[in-house]
């Protein structure tokens, strides 16, 4: 028998108490950042030769550091794409940490990877991709987009004619910043269709027609967005898929934010055509109520991803031997060692059932419609465009850009709400406006009313 380490038991109880308090609190502090110098002055030296002790460090966290974060699950945090992990998922995130699973190869992570795959099967079923399609959990949408882009490019380069060419992709200005950033990482050129409204096959075709002969030769993929981050706009996936099929282009759908809405019957038809994608990005840490971080990349043909990403090394051969009887997540995306970050999602899905996910996503969509009606009924407010998915862009009549900034800071300073301004491209000009993005099903109509009232 091991001697029970009293200090360890106490620390474990303290941590559990804190976690229970955090997940069961009905009203959280919204928190705000502080300058690094200020935090340093407050907490002093913490990493020392002898250590300051767990209890002391934990108290520093509770008293001074936790409140310097802005939790994304606050019901009045409607900025960027917020999140709202389920308590079940948070609890199993702790289990994931405690279990020390190296999630790269089945040989070491069979139990965890099995659970991940159960959750993945459900996600893939939402897309309508054909038999054989599957996916793998990544650190987020950025890593998923990069993994898909590299798979597409490597597949294209299998043709000797393109072996030494730098590839080119087309997307729209509504695409997420990570597409441009990852094109840089993959050393791929990018052409942007200059409209933030939904991309269509015709607009894509017109853009292709403007390419030089060499550009056309190097064009290998199109990235459509299944719910733009700024406005929730879903590109016309059906017509884009047709162009890609005709022109032999890889069709990637970035649904990092919008992908959760595939479960919602009220909007599922807007995604028609997604079942023709070669690859899809969906972030469970956005609208599938998983804790950070958890993204997913899905492929129609898993073999192509394996050709692009499978790592070779003498120290790895053993994994591919006995472990090869199972699924090796490392083979399909950019990471080797990986957390089994789909495990919390699996536990939450198993706990609640997929119907609860449907209801929670529908609630986010409904909140956007409610906000739209409240804005239309308000004499000083106007919608910039109709709510799309759970995004609402609206203006306060008479406000200049600095008024929005000031209002955001003021509400944040008070610990009341975090609602940030954005820009919307209207013809040749960009208008600054306010933006809601709803994820948390616990946000209430009253929350929205209070936020709108604060604009008077
Ligand atoms: C959030 C988002 C991303 C980036 O995902 P991360 O998880 O932040 O890396 C990519 N694409 C879209 C459409 C997004 O909304």
From TrEMBL:
Which keywords, in A-to-Z order, does the entry hold? Answer: Aminotransferase, Decarboxylase, Lyase, Pyridoxal phosphate, Transferase
Give one GO molecular function term: transaminase activity
What domain of life? Bacteria
Q: Which cofactor does it need?
A: pyridoxal 5'-phosphate
- Coiled-coil positions are none
Pfam families given in the database record: Pyridoxal_deC
Q: Which SUPFAM superfamilies does UniProt cross-reference here? A: PLP-dependent transferases
Among InterPro entries, the record links this protein to: Aromatic_deC, PyrdxlP-dep_de-COase, PyrdxlP-dep_Trfase, PyrdxlP-dep_Trfase_major, PyrdxlP-dep_Trfase_small, Pyridoxal-P_BS
* Annotated family: Belongs to the group II decarboxylase family.
In Swiss-Prot or TrEMBL terms, this protein is called Aminotransferase class V-fold PLP-dependent enzyme
Question: From what organism does this protein derive?
Answer: Winogradskyella marina
Q: Could you read off the lineage of the organism from its UniProt record?
A: Bacteria, Pseudomonadati, Bacteroidota, Flavobacteriia, Flavobacteriales
């Amino acid at each position: 028998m091991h001697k029970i380490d009293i200090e360890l038991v106490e620390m474990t109880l303290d941590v559990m108490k804190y976690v229970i308090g955090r997940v069961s609190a009905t009203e959280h502090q919204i928190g705000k950042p502080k300058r690094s110098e200020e935090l340093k002055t407050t907490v002093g030296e913490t990493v020392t030769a002898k250590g300051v002790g767990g209890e002391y460090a934990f108290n520093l966290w509770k008293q001074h550091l936790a409140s310097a974060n802005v939790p994304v699950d606050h019901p009045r945090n409607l900025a960027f794409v917020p999140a709202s992990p389920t308590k079940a998922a948070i609890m199993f995130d702790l289990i994931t940490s405690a279990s020390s699973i190296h999630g790269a190869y089945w040989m070491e992570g069979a139990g965890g990877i099995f659970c991940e795959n159960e959750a993945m099967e459900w996600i893939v079923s939402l897309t309508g991709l054909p038999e054989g399609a599957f996916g793998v959990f990544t650190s987020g949408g950025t890593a998923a987009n990069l993994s898909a882009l590299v798979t597409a490019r490597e597949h294209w380069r299998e043709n000797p004619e393109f072996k030494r060419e730098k590839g080119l992709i087309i997307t729209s200005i509504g695409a997420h910043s990570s597409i441009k950033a990852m094109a840089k990482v993959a050393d791929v050129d990018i052409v942007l269709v200059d409209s933030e409204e939904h991309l269509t096959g015709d607009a894509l075709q017109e853009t292709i027609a403007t390419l030089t002969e060499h550009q056309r030769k190097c064009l290998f993929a199109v990235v459509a967005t299944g719910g733009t981050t700024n406005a929730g706009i879903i590109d016309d996936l059906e017509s884009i898929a047709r162009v890609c099929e005709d022109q032999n282009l890889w069709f990637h759908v970035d649904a990092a934010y919008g992908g959760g809405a595939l479960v919602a019957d009220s909007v599922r038809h807007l995604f028609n055509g997604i079942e023709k994608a070669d690859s899809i990005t969906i972030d469970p840490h956005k609208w599938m109520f998983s804790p950070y971080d958890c993204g997913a990349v899905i492929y129609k043909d898993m073999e192509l991803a394996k050709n692009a990403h499978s790592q070779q090394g003498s120290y790895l051969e053993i994994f591919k031997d006995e472990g090869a009887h199972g699924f090796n997540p490392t083979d399909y995306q950019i990471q080797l060692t990986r957390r089994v970050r789909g495990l919390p999602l699996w536990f939450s899905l198993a706990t609640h059932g997929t119907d609860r996910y449907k209801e929670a996503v529908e609630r986010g969509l409904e909140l956007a419609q409610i906000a739209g009606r409240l804005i239309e009924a308000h004499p000083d407010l106007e919608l910039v465009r109709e709510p799309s998915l759970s995004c609402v862009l609206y203006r306060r009549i008479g406000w200049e850009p600095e008024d929005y900034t000031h209002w955001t800071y003021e509400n944040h300073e008070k610990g009341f709400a975090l609602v940030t301004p954005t820009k919307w491209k209207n013809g040749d000009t960009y208008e600054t406006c306010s933006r809601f993005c709803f994820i948390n099903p616990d946000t209430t109509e009253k929350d929205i009313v209070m936020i709108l009232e604060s604009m008077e």
